[in-house]
Amino acid sequence: MSQLALVPQPAPTPKVLLIGNPNVGKSLLFTRLTNRYVTVSNYPGTTVEITTAKADLDGELCEIIDTPGTNGLTPQSNDERVARDILLATPDADVIQVGDIGNLRRTLLLSLQLAEHGVAFTLCLNMSDEARARGVDAAALEAALGVPVIATSALKRWNIEKLKTAARQPRFAKIHVDYGEEIERAIRATGGSRGEALSTLSDDGRAYAIATARMAAVDALVALATESQSQRQDAHRFTNWLGAVAMHRVWGVPILLGVLYVAWLFVGKLGAGICVDFLQNTVFTEHLNPWAIRAANWLPLGKFVRDLLVGPYGVITMALTYAIAIVLPVVITFFTFFGVLEDSGYLPRLAVMLNRSFRRMGLNGKAVLPMVLGLGCDTMATLTTRILDTKKEAAIVTLLLALGVPCSAQLGVIMAMLGPLGWLAISMWTGVTLLTIFLVGWAASKVMSGDAGEFVLEIPPVRVPKLSNILIKVLARTEWYLKEAVPLFIVGTLVLYLLDFFHLLGALQRALSPVVVTGLGLPAESANAFVIGFLRRDYGAAGLYAMQRAGHLTPNQTVVALTVITLFIPCVANFLVMLRERGTRAGFAMAAFIIVYAFGIGFLMNAALHFFGVIL
Amino acid sequence: MAYECPLCGTDFEHADCRSACPMSRGCAMVRCPRCGYEFVESGKLADMLRRWIRRGPKPQPAPPPEPAVRRLTDLAVGATASIAFIAPTSASRINKLASFGLVPGSEVRLVSRRPAVVLQCGATSIAVEDEIGRDIYVRVDAA
């Protein structure tokens, strides 16, 4: 049997599977092997979806499959379950285990479990460019373990070719752990593979004994492969100090405020201020739109088509102007900033800082990643709720994302509109939004059944982000945004245009006027913004922005309108993802709650402003 | 009432006041008849200040003998110890901690206790909640 497995099977396209702990540079290695980009990041568990690509390994075209980072083959989360399922579902694949050379203990713990599952593999010790790699003897490890061991650096492209060759000749590891008479008897009794039997026993009260025996075997291997005292982390490095300060109970707070301030400077001032001004006023209003209007007038087009392109609800003059001039700069600057946070290792530290507050909302610190990512794109963030341990947490985060977390596109418009109104208006909007997140989260945690998972989170070392890595990531995410948002912008404009063309817009505005005019105290035309807000709330916000610029909204009205549109469902795409991830019933229930809540808060704010006679 | 001047050390009986002083009655100051130094004999604020200034190290009870095995959260920040056992609450918790290398015998260093318990095990840093930190028992080596 083992002789057969050494010979590559004559399959149509051989498969090569990458498996490894989170945050060991697996995604970057995948890129190096395939010359194709996937998201590379520092937060444990970001690669939720499975990526595959074709690559030439040792003269043969193979399909390379990347799996979510996993700490073991007894799955503790959905990601880990996915990784194990893929491994067991593709028994003919050549497996490459990717590990951090500076963390042999964790790497070999996984190797041991691969061996127990009867998987032949090649061990790739990645990150060998880092100082921590010194003193690791790959040859000694290869001799002790019995599988090919290649020390690589995906970052510096060391030994990638060597790995490509070795990957096609995986071997079975020759390590064997004796778990003691009782457990060994139980393993024999199941009759299945040793690994599966151990997984079952681990969930069945023997976790303690199995884990202890495994670790002892791993520690013996680590001792063989390293020179004594060499695997010590350099405690005096600046980045280590920074990493500790960022989650200090006192100094962590000014660092968090500093990060927020830089975010505001970069996204708010540079993105939403300077770039939007330039693109909207100079590029679109002064040059592009007049040209487009002249061209449309010159071409032999009917009034219907001409207005469709360049009229007040035109695809070029409205949809593209909003998408490119107002929203795109904010999206790009936000994702650049988020990329830096992600790659530097700050987000897990933020999770440590916020764990206690999140506990009150029935969540734990792990929910920080989807919540912060939601400030970029709520749809993307709703997908990443898969990294959370329990269904209850995933449901609460989905609701809070849709309700209270404005995405970057919308945030940009909001900043631009609130900026000139002064601090009272800004703090009213911020206060209502934050209070909503906290109170609704708290209430949801009481209403929903189930438990929040336990907070156990790996803190990766602080690393200086690589500019090229961030740029590629920003590019990929912006492309995603353009594909996702621009078509919806155009559809929204078409809906408005058709309503206007058939003189239905006025009727719709009159129909909504009890809500919009009487309830929220807004001008009737702001109904337009809410109509397209159903498609994308950032587009709705952009409509409000245009009204404010034209002087049709008082500061009071602006704050009320912005709060309602912030609490609204982010966009059609987000709604569809909600239905897919949480089920139809829960999805519709959440949407109904959000719409009622958003308008209800708007009514209350309007009434309160009137009652207290506040004029912003 | 007997006084001792804190400046010149004279012992005297009566705190004689000058009748011309507008505060001659009901004031807390005492005047030394020899050197004329005025001082506060007693008073709430003065006593508090005095106690605070003269505060020495408080008498402390002898430290209890340190137990060989204690909770991880009872370690001093920065101290290193080896895991003795983990309270068996749930298999999933044991498995999760084990997948990070946290099993009996592993050496851990307590990096911080707040806002969450952060510990270092080999090259891995892990943050856990208080409750989990309290359920990990460690043994501090005598050396």
Fold topology:
The complex is a heterodimer of chains A (616) and B (143).
Chain A: H1 2-6, E1 15-20, H2 26-34, E2 51-57, E3 60-66, H3 78-89, E4 94-100, H4 104-116, E5 121-126, H5 138-145, E6 149-151, H6 160-166, H7 181-190, H8 194-225, H9 238-245, H10 252-298, H11 303-310, H12 315-344, H13 346-360, H14 368-374, H15 378-383, H16 391-404, H17 408-418, H18 423-447, E7 456-459, H19 467-501, H20 505-519, H21 527-533, H22 537-549, H23 555-567, H24 572-582, H25 584-611
Parallel strand pairs in A: 1-3, 1-4, 4-5, 5-6
Antiparallel strand pairs in A: 2-3
Helix pairs in contact in A: 4-8, 5-8, 7-8, 10-12, 10-17, 12-17, 12-19, 16-18, 16-24, 17-22, 17-23, 18-23, 21-22, 22-23, 23-25, 24-25
Chain B: E1 3-4, E2 11-12, E3 29-31, E4 38-40, H1 44-53, E5 69-71, E6 80-86, H2 91-99, E7 107-112, E8 117-121, E9 124-128, H3 130-134, E10 136-139
Antiparallel strand pairs in B: 1-2, 3-4, 5-10, 6-7, 6-10, 7-8, 8-9
CATH fold name of the largest domain in chain B: SH3 type barrels
Mean pLDDT across the residues of chain A is: 85
Class of secondary structure makeup of chain A: alpha/beta
Number of helices of chain A: 25
Kindly estimate the percentage of residues of chain A that lie in beta strands according to DSSP.
5-15%
Which regions of chain A have little confidence, pLDDT < 50, spanning 5+ residues?
Answer: 1-5, 40-47
Share in helix of chain B: 10-25%
Q: Assign an overall shape of chain B.
A: rod-shaped
- Largest interface in this structure: A-B, 46 and 34 residues
The counted number of beta strands of chain A is: 7
Task: Give an account of the 3D structure.
- The complex is a heterodimer of chains A (616) and B (143).
- Chain A has 616 residues and is an alpha/beta fold.
- Chain A is 63% helix and 6% strand.
- Chain A has a 6-stranded mixed β-sheet with strand order 2-3-1-4-5-6, with helices on both faces.
- The longest helix of chain A is centred in the middle third of the chain and has 47 residues, at 252-298.
- By secondary structure, chain B is of the alpha+beta class.
- Chain B is rod-shaped, with a radius of gyration of 30 Å.
- In chain B, a hairpin with a 2-residue loop joins β8 and β9 (124-128).
- Chain B has helices spanning 44-53, 91-99, 130-134, and strands at residues 3-4, 11-12, 29-31, 38-40, 69-71, 80-86, 107-112, 117-121, 124-128, 136-139.
- In chain B, the strands form 3 sheets. Chain B has a 6-stranded antiparallel β-sheet. A two-stranded antiparallel ribbon of chain B has the order 1-2. Chain B has a two-stranded antiparallel ribbon with strand order 3-4.
- The mean pLDDT of chain B is 81.
- Chain B folds into 2 domains: 3-53, no CATH class; 69-139, SH3 type barrels, CATH 2.30.30.90.
- Chain B contains 3 helices and 10 strands.
- The interface between A and B is large, with 46 and 34 residues.
